[in-house]
Design a protein that fits this description.
- The protein is an alpha+beta fold and about 210 residues long.
- The protein has a single domain, classed as DNA mismatch repair MutH/Restriction endonuclease, type II (ECO RV Endonuclease, Chain A, 3-Layer(aba) Sandwich).
- It has a 4-stranded mixed sheet with strand order 4-3-6-7. Strands 5-9-8 form a 3-stranded antiparallel sheet. A two-stranded antiparallel sheet has the order 1-2.
- Strand 1 and strand 2 form a beta hairpin.
- Helix 2 crosses helix 3.
- The longest helix has 21 residues.
- The radius of gyration is 17 Å and the shape is globular.
- The chain starts with 6 loop residues before the first helix and ends in an 11-residue tail after the last helix.
Length: about 210
């Protein structure tokens, strides 16, 4: 059975490589960054999973047993470092979502205890990517928890009343249901944290000035 580090120890280990370029680490750890000239969006997370001696995990269970690892690309905008995009949380299985209360859902299990890392995104070709930050996040703030729960139940009720196909990215205050998968015709959907929630998780909802140098 695989032994996984406790969250605080995993954070401490990641802190040892803050400021380093993840791109050469990908080569050393045999992680594919681009395949068929297309980016592997999860490559940076795979690098850190291998650095932590974890198996690469695409399952709905949290990476670390009781904690989840997320790596967020950051970009500079008007001198501020902000999230580049929304954050995929977990796939939506309509039958499961309808039957499962929020507190027992995969979405809650993925968000309740995170190791959250920020990396600098430079270009689609991913010539380099500096590991900028690491920290822990717990979905413990009552107001935040209530909003995320309401977003989950909005999706849950929509599936019950109007069906899975009725889900749209316009739903949800902090978490939205969106298509996920290759091509614009994908019918798969996943829960995504909107940029506002990503900023809260990263602790960058009030970012400090930063220079691109």
């Amino acid at each position: 059975m695989q032994t996984v580090l406790q969250r605080n120890l995993a954070i401490d280990k990641i802190k040892l490589i803050l400021g380093q370029d993840l791109r050469p680490m990908a080569d050393t750890l045999e992680v594919t960054v681009r395949k068929n000239d297309k980016p592997n969006k999860g490559w940076a997370g795979h690098v850190l999973e291998r650095y932590l001696d974890m198996k690469i995990n695409s399952a709905q269970q949290p990476d670390g047993g009781d904690w989840e690892l997320k790596v967020i690309p950051l970009k500079f905008k008007k001198g501020l470092l902000i999230p580049k995009e929304t954050m995929a949380i977990t796939m939506i299985n309509p039958e499961e979502v309808v039957e499962t209360p929020f507190e027992k859902s995969h979405m809650f299990n993925k968000l309740k205890s995170l190791i959250i890392c920020g990396r600098i995104f430079e270009a689609q070709s991913e010539p380099r990517s500096i590991l900028h930050s690491v920290g822990g996040f717990d979905l413990s703030d009552p107001q935040l928890l209530a909003t995320v729960k309401e977003d989950y139940e909005t999706v849950q009720n929509a599936i019950r009343k109007t069906g899975f196909a009725s889900l749209t990215g316009r739903m949800g205050t902090l978490v939205q249901p969106r298509t996920k998968g290759p091509g614009h015709g994908s019918i798969s959907r996943a829960f995504y944290a909107r940029k506002e929630l990503v900023s809260i998780i990263l602790g960058t909802d009030a970012p400090q000035d930063a220079s691109e140098g």
